[in-house]
TrEMBL record:
GO MF annotations, alphabetized: ATP binding; ATP-dependent DNA damage sensor activity; ATP-dependent peptidase activity; damaged DNA binding; serine-type endopeptidase activity; zinc ion binding
Annotated positions binding ATP: 95-102
GO cellular component: cytosol
Protein name: DNA repair protein RadA
A Pfam family matched in the record: Lon_C
Role this protein plays: DNA-dependent ATPase involved in processing of recombination intermediates, plays a role in repairing DNA breaks. Stimulates the branch migration of RecA-mediated strand transfer reactions, allowing the 3' invading strand to extend heteroduplex DNA faster. Binds ssDNA in the presence of ADP but not other nucleotides, has ATPase activity that is stimulated by ssDNA and various branched DNA structures, but inhibited by SSB. Does not have RecA's homology-searching function.
RecA family profile domain sequence ranges: 66-215
Gene: radA
Motif RadA KNRFG motif mapped to chain: 252-256
Lineage: Bacteria, Bacillati, Actinomycetota, Actinomycetes, Jiangellales
Entry superkingdom: Bacteria
Amino acid sequence: MAKAKATAPAFRCSECGWTTAKWVGRCGECQAWGTVEQAGTAKAGVTAAGPVTEAARPIGSVALEAARSRPTGVGEFDRALGGGLVQGAVILLAGEPGVGKSTLLLDVTARWAHEAGRALYITGEESAAQVRLRAERTGAVADHLYLAAETDLSAVLGHIDEVQPSLLVLDSVQTVSSPAVDGAAGGVTQVREVAASLIRVAKDRGLATILVGHVTKDGGIAGPRVLEHLVDVVLQFEGDRHSRLRLVRTVKNRFGPADEVGCFDLTDTGITSLADPTGLFLSRHATPVPGTCITVTLEGRRPLLGEVQALVATSALASPRRANSGLDSSRVAMVLAVLERRGQVKLSNSDVYTSTVGGAKLSEPSTDLALLLAVASAATGTPLPAGLTALGEVGLAGEIRRVSGLNRRLAEAERMGFTTALVPADPGPVPGGIRVVEVTDVGQALAATGRDARLAADSPQRT
């Protein structure tokens, strides 16, 4: 009998971890191309026990001081992080090119250098002079902020040994490579090696580290998926090129909530925190205008007011146009169908244009009722009552469904001066300063905002 082989070649997908005995071009699990690489050989045997790094001890005796967060001085960035930076924490900040990642982190490192200690900014995409020019323009120059332009991992580690910073920013992880690993900078193997080395240094020295990451054309973080598992915090930097508003959205956070959002205003002179960005999403009208309705969305745990606008015009085409900006196309099509079928508002011969104000993206179902009322108002030419906001999800049967966080949404609407809110039935406890009108279906919602611009008297009301 032939002897069984003690070892066998193993290949592993860098995205999902799927293994196979032979190389293939496409992963059999996640269907990704070019991610299957040789992972070495599988050796039979038993791993013997070895020396431990630190003796295990009762969890109650572990000190908490090392896990305390320290504010960076940028309020909205601290909000997204859950309070600030933790010693030894590794943060991955990803976003599209030109969205403002480098500007934000340069401001963070300058404030840290002013208040907390030394900060080291490593740039692999620009020269040191280019970064200094941006720092002069945005006022991010500090005595204890050190700057270096490096693309070699060993040189980056040398700078860390020399400067001894308490905060490290690497812009970006895809531009740095290690000479000990094959492959070009930005490849799966190189990104994994660079990230693993920096994470090991951060944990050993208690060094807060921020890694800047690129994104793919689909908006996902470039590089191996294991990178997001290794880091402690994953932040997504979002923003429209035609808008000044920028959002830092928490995707993963081991030290705080994973659903926080920080708001920033990006200008020519730098980036500033927006503690109250609601005004950016509302337009100002001297008198009520048909086709507009205000709603309240939740970005993470933060309620924000948003305005939905609609325009309905007679179409000369066989197939009327349906165009929207800032809204989910599938939900817009569904709401239009429900409005025509259940609300008896004829739209089949009309072009319908829908949009949001200020570049906001309203994709959650709670905006359905506001969208429906805005289109109905535009179709009939009747403006909605002043001081009205609408919250609710619209079902295919025409019912109005409840939404999450209704109390927080109503409290924000009251704070912004709105006096009346259309909400689904049984809203639970509501703020006392706003009038709540409960609606159960599309017909009742349209009746509550009828042509006489008054709330229907027979609608159930709560104050």
